[in-house]
Amino acid sequence: MNDVLLIALFAFLGAAAAGLLGAGVLRLLRHRSLVVSLSVVAGVAVTAMLAGTLTVAWAMFLSSHDLYVVTTVVAMAALVSLATAVLLGRWVAAHSRELTLATRSFGDGGTFAAPTGQPTAELAELARELAATSAKLDSSRERERALEASRRELVAWISHDLRTPLAGLRAMAEALEDGMAADSGRYLRQIRTEVERMNGMVGDLFELSRIQAGSLTLTPARISLYDLVGDALAGVDPLAREHGVRLIGDRIDEVPVEVDGKEMSRVLGNLLINAIRRTPPDGTVAVAAHRSDGGVVLSVTDGCGGIPEEDLPRVFDTGWRGSHARTPPAGAGLGLAIVRGIVEAHAGRAEVRNVQGGCCFSVTLPAV
Known about the structure:
By secondary structure, this protein is of the alpha+beta class. The chain is built from 8 helices and 7 strands. 64% of the residues lie in helices and 12% in strands.
């Protein structure tokens, strides 16, 4: 038993010395190719075995012939191990270069195509993660292009919408200044109307800029959804009467919500005004609210006739109008973008879907 322990001790000391030397070599060559690292690892394994064997042989006073035989066997094992390590390293390195080239392509704006036949599970997993990242980047680029297009479109629309009333205001101001206005009161009322419209557009732009900059400050308070909807319906009732649209709000559950009352009133107001303007005379705009598994759902259903399926993903984009109408009721295309921004600031979500005869805008808020 003592002899076995002594042999194990000598073998361990020889292998440990070789292992420490190999660790130092690996540290010096840690920035080199994988082929070099695998060769060092194989060399360390064989050297550790050789060092342990030679140490035991020396302690056991083996004959020269026996020591030569042991050394020859270990040398052959070293050659095979090094050859295997070099082949494996070159194989893995080649596939790594293919993966690098494929990664460079989607980093430059292309699409990542994973090379086939990855030699290791780790490289295969890395390829799958890169493919998933490429898909996310493609989606992000597409979203960015759509946002940039909507921004350019918005700037063009805002410029047009501001230029038209400014030209009218200038003409009316010149007419009043020159004393050419036959009905100065009508001119003044028209000037006030145009100023209020431009003030609303500027206010929407300011609100949207706060939302997109992340500087929208909320003051949440516990309020009843029934009261919130009731106030919003009362605020838009004159507009509904003017357009001949009937408002229905008899399906409102009295559930509490933790929201900023002022901002959520703006959300409801924008949704209701949009619905009233898009609903033909004698049509109906219905408001409903109920508790669901996902939170509290508030919906506004109009009679606009529906939105084309290809436009549904763009409804809440900045500048989207749903038509190219240049009449004032078309607005600047900011109302629904503001709705989504405020709702998301409340950790909720805004959605739209087509229903029979119109569409339904729904807002989901966290339940209290």
